[in-house]
Design a protein that fits this description.
This protein has 1257 residues and is α/β, with parallel strands linked by helices. 63% of the residues lie in helices and 9% in strands. GO terms for molecular function: ABC-type oligopeptide transporter activity; ATP binding; ATP hydrolysis activity; bile acid transmembrane transporter activity.
C-alpha cells in the first residue's frame, strides 16, 4: 500500500536499487573469505618461523627437514611442511588488492542503491503531497472543525516525512542488512556447520535477555509514568485552580502534596535503572561466555581433529556474529516501516475520503437571474464538532431582496451560524435554506458563493499586496474596478497616502494594517465581486469610533439595491436597518423596526437600555477622545464571565499590535542560552558517592572492549605453537579468562545502571519539586500568559526535569565508558606496535568522519528540506487557517496551484540530496575496507622485515577499530546532552524569575487589630495580557468595617477585577487600594490573604474529601473535626453531609464533580468561614443555583456576613437590596452609589434596571 503512487519508472528504479543493495549486503561475508585466507597465511608463516627456530631443522627443497637425516628418512617421518615458498609481503599485497576491489565495488553499489531509492521516494512523496493538499482544500468546512489546523499542518510535514523515511533509503538499507544476515549464516554452515550450530545454540539466551529487558523496561516505564501521572494530576489540578490556591494560601501545602506523589515515581525509576543494568550485564556475560565456548570448541576442532584451518574458524565465527549483528541493525528499519504505515493510513484515508460538500465539483445548476430572496424553512442545525449542542432550533426566517436585515441577540444565539448556512459552509440537519425558492443544495457551489460578498468581524487578508487582496474578490478584475471598489469602501484615500499605494504589502494576516484599514480593504474585496447578497458579520465591532463612522458610511453606501444581512451589536449600526430580527437560543424570537421592538421590551430592549446608559455616563465623564478605547471595554470578553450571555463577547479585541508583541515574546522564549553544566551538577551534588561508584563501574565497562581484542589475538597466536600440550593449556586459560571478563562486566554494568539511575532520579525529583514551588510563587498575572497555561506548565514539569537527567546521570556513565574504552585501546596499541598504530590512526579520522558525515548529511538535508518546505508550509498554513475566507471567495484552486508551485524546490533538492547522500553512504561503507587493506599490507611488511609477531597485528587492528566505534557512540550522545542543557536553562529561568507579587517573602507590613476598612482610590487597571483594554478606569469606592457593599453592572465593567485587586492577585496600574489605611502594595501578601475569605461563582474544590476541602480554608494551622462541623453548620451544610454514607470523608471527585452546584457552593462557604476572615468577598455566589438551593445558600451567606466587611457581586436584586451600599458600575468606574432607597429615588440606571425587571448583566 505504501507504494501505491509509484509509476513504472519508479518501480524500475526501486528494483535496480534493491539488486544493488543485495549485492552490497554480500560484501561483508565476502570480506570474511579473504580474511580467513589472510589469517591462514599469517599462521603458516609463523609456524614456519617457529619450526626453523629449532637448530636441528633447516629448509631444503622447499620443505622443512631434519638436518642430520636423509631425504628418504624425512619422508618416512612425514616431514612435508613446505617452507620458503610463502612470501608474506607478496601474499599481503594480493589480499590488499582484494580488499580495495571489494571497497570500490561497495562504494559504487552503495551509491546506486541509495540514490535510486531516494530519488524514487522523492517523486512519490511529491505526488502524495499534491493529492493530499488538493483533497484537503476540497473538504467541507465541518471537516475542518473536527480536525485542528495545527494537526493538519503537522500531517503535511511530519507524517508525509515519515512515509518518506519508510519508502526511501530505509528499504534499501534493510535489504542490504538482511542479505548480509543470510550470507553470513550461509557461510557459517558451508564452511563449518558444527561450530555454527554450537554458536546458534547459545544465541537464544541473548535473544531471551533482550526480550525480557524490553518487557521489564516497558513495564517499569509504565509504572513510573503512572506514578508520575498522579503527581502530574496534582500539578494540573493546582495550576488550573491557582486563584483558589493563592486566595487560601495553600502553596506550601500543595508543594508537599506534589512531592509525596513524586517519591513513588522516583522509586520506579531507580528500579528501572537497576533492571536495565542487570540485563545489559547479563547480555555481556552471555556474549563473553559465547566467545569462550566458540573458541574452546573451535580450537579443539582445529587442533585435535584438524577439520578446520584457523582461518575457517574465524570465518565461521565472524560470519555468524556479523549475521546476528545485521539482523539486530535491520530492526530499526522495520520500526520506520511501521511508523510510515501508520502515518500513511491517516493520509491515504484523507486522500480517499469524499467531501460532503465538494467545492470544486461542477455539479449543480446556475440560475439565470437572481433576485436575492433568502428563506430559512424550519432549519435545525448543530456543528459537526459539537453534535450535542443545538445551535439552530427550527429556525424560520425570511430575508427579502433589496432590504437590509439586522440580526441581534446574545452570543451563541446562532446569528453567525445562519450566515454560514447561507454560504453553504454547512448543510442544515433538518429543513432547508432557499435562494429565490431554490434549495441551495441544488445549486453549483462556486457559483453560489460568487454571488455573495462577506465582510467578517475579523477580516482575513492574505500576505500579499493590497491590490492583490482586493483582486481575490474576482480574478478577472481590472485596475479601474479595484480603484472604484476602494473608493466605495472609503479606502482609496488612505491607500494613496501609503508610499507604495496599491502595491503595499499587508503583512502576514494583514498585520501591517490597522483594524479599520483591514476592514475597508475587506469591504472593497467584497464589492469587487459586485455581489447580489452582502453579509456583514459584525463588520464594525472591532473598530474605534472614528474608523467605525468611516466604515459605517462605506457600508451604507454599498447596501443600496442589494440583499444585505448585518449582524451587529452597536445600535448606531442597527437603527437604520429595514428589518431587525432578534435571536435567542437558535430561534428568531422577534422581528420588526427599531421602535416596534422597543415597545416589546424583549431581547432588543435589554440590549438598548444597557448600551445607552453606558454611553450617557461616558459622555458626562470626560472628553471623549481619551475614552475611545473604552468602547471596546463594553463588549470586551471578560476573562471568566460565564454569564455574559447578553452582551456578547468576542475574543477578537486583542489588537494587532498585541499579536505582534506576542510573537516577539515567543521568539525570546525560544532562544535560551544552554545552562552551564556546573550549575546542573550543583543540584546533583548530594549524590556524589553514587556518581563516583557509577563512574568506576563505567570505566571498567569501557576497558572490556580492548581487553577482548587482546584475548582474541592471543587465541590466534596459540594456533602457531608447535607443542600440542602447551597449546591446549593456553587455549583453556584464555577461555577461562573470557568467562572471568564476562562475570566482571556483569557486576560493573549493574553497578553503573543502579548508581546513575539513583542519582538521576533523585535529581529529577528535586528539580520537579523546586520547579513546582517556583511556579506557585509567581504572581497571578504570570499565569494569564498563554505560554503558562496549566497544560504547558505540567508538561514542562514532566519533560524538562527528566531531560535534565541527560546532562548528568547515565550520560556521564556513557561518556566515561567511551573515554576509557578509547584510552585503553590506544595505550595497548602503542605499547605493542607504534608504527602500525600510527598507520591505522591515519584512517581513524576518515572512519569518524564518515560516521559524522552521515549524521551531518542527514541533519543538514533535513534542515534544507525544512527550509524548502517552509514556503510551501506557509502557503498551506495560510490556506488552512483562513479556510472560511478562501471558501467564501471560492479561491481554493488558486491556493492549490500556489502550493504545488512551491513543491518543486524541495523536490529538486531531494534529487540532489539523493546523489550526495548516496556518495556519502558509499564512502562511509568502503572506508572500512580500505583501512583494512592498508593496515594488513603494512602489517605483513612489519612481520617480515622487523620480526613483529603476527598476533600483534591483529591485536592492534582490532583494538583500534573497536575503539573507533566507541568514539562514534560517544558522539551520538551529544544531542541528548544539548537538549538537557537547554531544558535545564528553561528550568533555571523559571527558578530565577522574581515574581512581581511574592508569596513566599516575609517582607511587608502586618498589624494586629485588623479591622477590614477598604478604600479604592482612583484605581486604573488593565490585564497584563490585554494591555489595550482598560478594565478599571478610576474606581473610587470605600467600605467601613462591618459594612456590605454590592457591585452591580454589566459584565466586563470591572466588578470581579476589583475583587482580584483586593486579594492582590494583581496590583493596580495607577491609584491605590488601602486596607485599614495601609497601601496594599506594602502589605505582606500571605498576611493580607489570610484575612480575606472568598466565595466565587464557580467554586473550585480539590480532589479529596469534604473535610479536607473545608480544612483548606485555613492552611496556617491544624484544624480539628469540631471546628469543621461548626463551620459546616453555619454554612447549612452539616445535615446534608451527615446524610452521605461516608459523611465528611466523602470524596468530592475531580473539581467537585460528584456534588451538585448548591452543595459545592456551601462547601466553599464553609471553607471561607473556617478562615474566620475579616473581609468576605462574594463573587456571584448564588447566581448558578436554582431558587431552592439559592435560598439555603443565601441564608448561609447572610449568617456568614455578620460582623465582617463584605463585598458582594450579584445579578439578582433579591441578593443586593439589603446591602449598606450599592455601587452601579459601567466601563470601569462607578456611575451611581448609595443605598437601595436612595438609588430608586435617583431614577437613574439602577432604577431602570429594577423597574424593567431585566436581568442585571
Amino acid at each position: 500500500q505504501l507504494f501505491r503512487f509509484a509509476t513504472c519508472r519508479e518501480v524500475l528504479m526501486m528494483a535496480c536499487g534493491g539488486v544493488c543493495a543485495a549485492l552490497h549486503g554480500s560484501a561483508q561475508p565476502l570480506m570474511l573469505l579473504v580474511f580467513g585466507m589472510l589469517t591462514d597465511a599469517f599462521i603458516d608463516y609463523d609456524v614456519e618461523l617457529n619450526e626453523l627456530m629449532d637448530p636441528d631443522k633447516h629448509c631444503a627443497n622447499n620443505t622443512i627437514q631434519w638436518r642430520h637425516l636423509s631425504a628418504q628418512e624425512n619422508l618416512e617421518l612425514n616431514m612435508t611442511r613446505p617452507c620458503g615458498i610463502l612470501d608474506i609481503e607478496y601474499e599481503m599485497t594480493n589480499f590488499a588488492y582484494y580488499y580495495v576491489g571489494i571497497g570500490i565495488a561497495v562504494f559504487i553499489l552503495g551509491y546506486i542503491q541509495i540514490s535510486l531509492w531516494v530519488t524514487s521516494a522523492a517523486s512519490q512523496i511529491l505526488i502524495i503531497r499534491r493529492m493530499y493538499f488538493r483533497k484537503v482544500m476540497r473538504m467541507e468546512i465541518g471537516w475542518f472543525d473536527c480536525s485542528s489546523v495545527g494537526e493538519l499542518n503537522t500531517r503535511m510535514s511530519d507524517d508525509i516525512n515519515k512515509i518518506n523515511d519508510a519508502i526511501a533509503d530505509q528499504v534499501s538499507i534493510f535489504i542490504q542488512r538482511f542479505t548480509t544476515f543470510v550470507c553470513g549464516f550461509l557461510m557459517g554452515f558451508v564452511k563449518g556447520w558444527k561450530l555454527t550450530l554450537v554458536i546458534i545454540a547459545a544465541s537464544p539466551l541473548i535473544g531471551v535477555g533482550a526480550a525480557l529487558m524490553a518487557l521489564f523496561v516497558a513495564r517499569l516505564t509504565g509504572q513510573e509514568l503512572q506514578a508520575y501521572a498522579k503527581a502530574g494530576a496534582v500539578a494540573d489540578e493546582v495550576l488550573s485552580s491557582i486563584r483558589t490556591v493563592a486566595a487560601f494560601g495553600g502553596e506550601m501545602k500543595e508543594v508537599e502534596r506534589y512531592d509525596r506523589n513524586l517519591i513513588s515515581a522516583q522509586r520506579w525509576g531507580i528500579r528501572k535503572g537497576l533492571i536495565m543494568g542487570f540485563f545489559t550485564g547479563f547480555m555481556w556475560l552471555v556474549i563473553f561466555l559465547c566467545y569462550a565456548l566458540a573458541f574452546w570448541y573451535g580450537s579443539s576442532l582445529v587442533v585435535d581433529t584438524q577439520e578446520y584451518s584457523p582461518g575457517t574458524l574465524l570465518q565461521v565465527f565472524f560470519g555468524v556474529l556479523i549475521a546476528a549483528l545485521n539482523l539486530g541493525q535491520a530492526s530499526p528499519c522495520l520500526e520506520s516501516f511501521a511508523a510510515g504505515r501508520g502515518a500513511a493510513t491517516i493520509i491515504f484515508e484523507t486522500i480517499d475520503r469524499e467531501p460532503e460538500i465538494d467545492c470544486m465539483s461542477e455539479a449543480g445548476y446556475k440560475l439565470d437571474k437572481v433576485k436575492g430572496d433568502i428563506e430559512f424553512h424550519n432549519v435545525t442545525f448543530n456543528y459537526p464538532s459539537r453534535p450535542d449542542v443545538m445551535i439552530l432550533d427550527r429556525l424560520s426566517l425570511l430575508v427579502k431582496s433589496g432590504e437590509t436585515t439586522a440580526f441581534v441577540g446574545p452570543s451563541g444565539a446562532g446569528k453567525s451560524t445562519t450566515v454560514q448556512l447561507i454560504q453553504r459552509f454547512y448543510d442544515p440537519k433538518e429543513g432547508m435554506v432557499t435562494l429565490d425558492g431554490h434549495d441551495i443544495r441544488g445549486l453549483n457551489i462556486q457559483w453560489l458563493r460568487s454571488l455573495i460578498g462577506i465582510v467578517e468581524q475579523e477580516p482575513v487578508l492574505f500576505a500579499t499586496t493590497i491590490a492583490e487582496n482586493i483582486r481575490y474578490g474576482r480574478p478577472d478584475v481590472s485596475t479601474d474596478d479595484i480603484i472604484k471598489a476602494a473608493k466605495e469602501a472609503n479606502a482609496y484615500n488612505f491607500i494613496m497616502d501609503l508610499p507604495q499605494k496599491f502595491d503595499t504589502l499587508v503583512g502576514e494576516g494583514g498585520g501591517q494594517m490597522s483594524g479599520g484599514q483591514k476592514q475597508r480593504i475587506a469591504i472593497a474585496r467584497a464589492l469587487v465581486r459586485n455581489p447580489r447578497i452582502l453579509l456583514l458579520d459584525m463588520a464594525t465591532s472591532a473598530l474605534d469610533n472614528e474608523s467605525e463612522a468611516i466604515v459605517q458610511e462605506a457600508l451604507d453606501k454599498v447596501r443600496m439595491g442589494r440583499t444585505t444581512i448585518s449582524i451587529a451589536h452597536r445600535l448606531s449600526t442597527i437603527k437604520n436597518a429595514d428589518v431587525i430580527v432578534g435571536f435567542e437560543h437558535g430561534r428568531a424570537v422577534e422581528r420588526g423596526k427599531h421602535d416596534e421592538l422597543l415597545e416589546r421590551k424583549g431581547v432588543y430592549f435589554t440590549l438598548v437600555t444597557l448600551q445607552s446608559q453606558g454611553d450617557k455616563a461616558l459622555n458626562e465623564k470626560a472628553q471623549k477622545s481619551e475614552y475611545l478605547s473604552l468602547l471596546l471595554a463594553s463588549i470586551r470578553q471578560r476573562s471568566r464571565s460565564q454569564m455574559s450571555n447578553l452582551i456578547p463577547e468576542s475574543s477578537s479585541y486583542i489588537s494587532q499590535a498585541e499579536t505582534e508583541k506576542k510573537d516577539v515574546f515567543d521568539d525570546e522564549d525560544e532562544t535560551v542560552e544552554p545552562a552551564p553544566v556546573m550549575r546542573i551538577m550543583k543540584f546533583n551534588a548530594p549524590e556524589w558517592p553514587y556518581m563516583l561508584f557509577g563512574s568506576i563501574g563505567a570505566s571498567v565497562n569501557g576497558g572490556v572492549n580492548p581487553v577482548y581484542s587482546l584475548l582474541f589475538s592471543q587465541i590466534l597466536a596459540t594456533f602457531s605453537i608447535t607443542d600440542p600440550v602447551a597449546q591446549r593449556e593456553q587455549i583453556n586459560g584464555i577461555c577461562l579468562f573470557f568467562v572471568l571478563v564476562g562475570i566482571i562486566s556483569f557486576f560493573t554494568q549493574m553497578l553503573q545502571g543502579y548508581a546513575f539511575s539513583k542519582s538521576g532520579e533523585i535529581l529529577t525529583r528535586r528539580l520537579r519539586r523546586l520547579g513546582f514551588h517556583a511556579m506557585l510563587g509567581q504572581e497571578i498575572g504570570w499565569f494569564d500568559d498563554h505560554r503558562n497555561s496549566p497544560g504547558a506548565l505540567t508538561t514542562r514539569l514532566a519533560t524538562d526535569a527528566s531531560q535534565v537527567q541527560g546532562a548528568t546521570g547515565s550520560q556521564i556513565g556513557m561518556i566515561v565508558n567511551s573515554l576509557t574504552n578509547i584510552g585503553v585501546a590506544i595505550i595497548i596499541s602503542f605499547y605493542f606496535s607504534w608504527k602500525l598504530t600510527l598507520v591505522i590512526m591515519c584512517f581513524l579520522p576518515f572512519l569518524a568522519l564518515s560516521g559524522g558525515f552521515q549524521a551531518r548529511m542527514l541533519t543538514g538535508f533535513a534542515k534544507q528540506d525544512k527550509q524548502a518546505m517552509e514556503s510551501a508550509g506557509q502557503i498551506s498554513g495560510e490556506a488552512l487557517n483562513n479556510i472560511r475566507t478562501i471558501a467564501g471567495l471560492g479561491k481554493e484552486r488558486t491556493f492549490v496551484a500556489m502550493y504545488e508551485a512551491q513543491l518543486d524546490a524541495p523536490y529538486y533538492a531531494a534529487l540532489k540530496k539523493a546523489n550526495v547522500y548516496g556518495a556519502c553512504y558509499g564512502f562511509a561503507q568502503c572506508v572500512v575496507f580500505l583501512a583494512n587493506s592498508a593496515s594488513y599490507r603494512f602489517g605483513g611488511y612489519l612481520v617480515q622485515q622487523e620480526g613483529l609477531h603476527f598476533s600483534l597485528v591483529f591485536r592492534v587492528i582490532s583494538a583500534i577499530v573497536t575503539s573507533g566505534t566507541a568514539l562514534g557512540r560517544a558522539s551520538s550522545y551529544t544531542p541528548d546532552y544539548a537538549k538537557a542543557k537547554i531544558s535545564a536553562a528553561r528550568f533555571f529561568q523559571l527558578l530565577d524569575r522574581v515574581p512581581k507579587i511574592s508569596v513566599y517573602s516575609d517582607n511587608g507590613e502586618k498589624w494586629n487589630n485588623f479591622k477590614g476598612h477598604i478604600d479604592f482610590i482612583d484605581c486604573k487597571f488593565t490585564y497584563p495580557t490585554r494591555p489595550d483594554i482598560q478594565v478599571l478606569n478610576g474606581l473610587n469606592v470605600s467600605v467601613k468595617p462591618g459594612q456590605t457593599l454590592a457591585f452591580v453592572g454589566s459584565s466586563g465593567c470591572g466588578k470581579s477585577t476589583s475583587i482580584q485587586l483586593l486579594e492582590r492577585f494583581y496590583d493596580p496600574d495607577h491609584g491605590r487600594v488601602l486596607i485599614d489605611g495601609h497601601d496594599s502594595t506594602n502589605i505582606n501578601v500571605s498576611f493580607l490573604r489570610s484575612k480575606i475569605g472568598i466565595v466565587s461563582q464557580e467554586p473550585i474544590l480539590f480532589d479529596c474529601s469534604i473535610a479536607e476541602n473545608i480544612r483548606y480554608g485555613n492552611n496556617q494551622c491544624k484544624i480539628g473535626m469540631n471546628e469543621i462541623i461548626v463551620a459546616a453548620q453555619k454554612a447549612q451544610l452539616h445535615d446534608f453531609v451527615m446524610s452521605l454514607p461516608e459523611k465528611y470523608d466523602t470524596n468530592v471527585g475531580s473539581q467537585g464533580s460528584q456534588l451538585s452546584r448548591g452543595q459545592k457552593q456551601r462547601i466553599a462557604i464553609a471553607r471561607a468561614i473556617i478562615r474566620d476572615p475579616k473581609i468576605l468577598l462574594l463573587d456571584e455566589a448564588t447566581s448558578a443555583l436554582d431558587t431552592e438551593s439559592e435560598k439555603t445558600v443565601q441564608e448561609a451567606l447572610d449568617k456568614a456576613r455578620e460582623g465582617r466587611t463584605c463585598i458582594v457581586i450579584a445579578h439578582r436584586l433579591s441578593t443586593i437590596q439589603n446591602s449598606d451600599i450599592i455601587a452601579v458600575m459601567s466601563r470601569g468606574y462607578v456611575i451611581e452609589m448609595g443605598a437601595h432607597e436612595q438609588l430608586m429615588g435617583l431614577k437613574g440606571a439602577y432604577y431602570k434596571l429594577v423597574t424593567t425587571g431585566a436581568p442585571i448583566s
